[in-house]
Amino acid sequence: MSFLSATLARVKPSPTIAVTTKAKELRAAGKDVIGLGAGEPDFDTPDNVKEAAKAAIDRGETKYTAVDGLPELKQAICDKFKRDNGLDYTPAQVSVGAGGKQILYNALMATLNPGDEVIIPAPYWVSYPDMVLLAGGEPVFVAAGIETGFKLTPEALEAAITPKTKWFIFNSPSNPTGAGYSRDELKALTDVLMRHPHVWVMSDDMYEHLVYGDFEFTTPAQVEPGLYDRTLTCNGVSKAYAMTGWRIGYAAGPEELIGAMRKIQSQSTSNPSSIAQWAALEALTGPQDFIPVNNATFQRRRDMVVDLLNAAEGITCPVPEGAFYVYPSVAGCIGKTSPGGVKIEDDEAFATALLEEMGVAVVFGAAFGLSPNFRVSYATSDENLKEACRRIQEFCASLT
Ligand SMILES: Cc1ncc(COP(=O)(O)O)c(C=O)c1O
Question: What spacing in Å lies between the alpha carbon of 104 and ligand 1's midpoint?
Answer without folding.
Answer: 9
